[in-house]
Automatic annotation (TrEMBL):
It holds the Pfam family CoA_transf_3. InterPro entries: CoA-transferase_III (IPR050509), CoA-Trfase_fam_III (IPR003673), CoA-Trfase_III_dom3_sf (IPR044855), CoA-Trfase_III_dom_1_sf (IPR023606). It comes from Agrocybe pediades. Belongs to the CoA-transferase III family. Coiled coil: none annotated. GO terms for molecular function: catalytic activity. This is Alpha-methylacyl-CoA racemase. It comes from the Eukaryota.
Amino acid sequence: MALTGIKVIEFAGLAPGPFAGMLLADNGASVTRIDRPYSTSSDVLCRGKRSIAIDSKLESGRKLLEELISSADVLIDPFRPGVLERLGLGPELFLGDGTKKGLNEKLIYARIVGFPRTGEHKDMAGHDINYLALSGALAMLPGTSEKPVFPLNILADFAGGGLMCATGILLALIERARTGRGQVVNADMVSGTRYIASFPLIHSSIGSGMLGGPRGTNMLDGGSPFYGIYTCKDGGWMSVGCLEPQFFTVFIKKFNENVSSDFDPLHGWRPDPSTQMKREDWTRLAEYLRLGFLTRPRDDWAKVFHGTDACTVPVLTPKEAAAHTSSIPAFHPALTSHAKSDNRTPNLKNIILKPGAHTRDVLAEFGLDDDRLHRLEKEGVFGNTNAGRRPSKL
């Protein structure tokens, strides 16, 4: 795989850091998560990783971390600014400071924070919704007339944070192959979200295109009746996305053919392909579609539009999507064959990585012999989380 042979040290953290590490692991990197002794974990983004537990408050533990990072290709730092510096593990130690040689000048030192590292919010705590709010993207999202709705914690945490950080790491690895030098990769979720939202933000700023008007009046933000979600008779939903005229033509023809002959909610008004671009008719079209979708269950509508260019498909539940043979697996491609033969919801016991589960194996691979492991264990560096078969002399 593309990243086979790349060693990654990932300090345990929340959503974006683990996601970046998982992306690297999925593509062949050897990712080791650093946990604290006696800690517990609910991180489900640990596919393909191993865990070691080290007490960084002990000098011998800090020294061990220094050695591990010195022999790694990538470090993922998910902490607020200054945490690793206070441990004496800042980037200058490994990459050098311009006057003193670093311990590992090929290291990609990747850091993920929420707010930009400079500016008035840099020392504040926050979460996805706060970073999304400052990015400008939240103000553009659909919702009610009173306020926009946030899309879980997908945009800032995972797209603007984890995905952008992983992209930065990959670019830094490419540059390292050319120059032989590592670098610091700084990712913050506000800036990352603004970057992935370039299309809507640019259209909004210049007042043109599909998102140039006020929120809720445009093609893609709930303003157009032919790009939205409709409730069906059984409470299920259908997604409609027929933006182009040729797709709307297919959609409205199939829709009109599949409501009852006496369906006349607007007293004689009935849409046709020419209705799409008549903004004065959008309110009536939205009501016509809303009431029409309510006349049949979701799966009936799904059959009506299946195999057509109407750009209309059912909204699947997570369980349905996992079982759908044509859906993209939510798991690593190597597990695709298993996912297709066993569509049960994964057991959390098999997903969550126990902190320290691979301490001995990983440290042995990094070159620590049994005598040193024994000394470190006696000093309490591993706590009581050391897992695996212990040498007889321990």
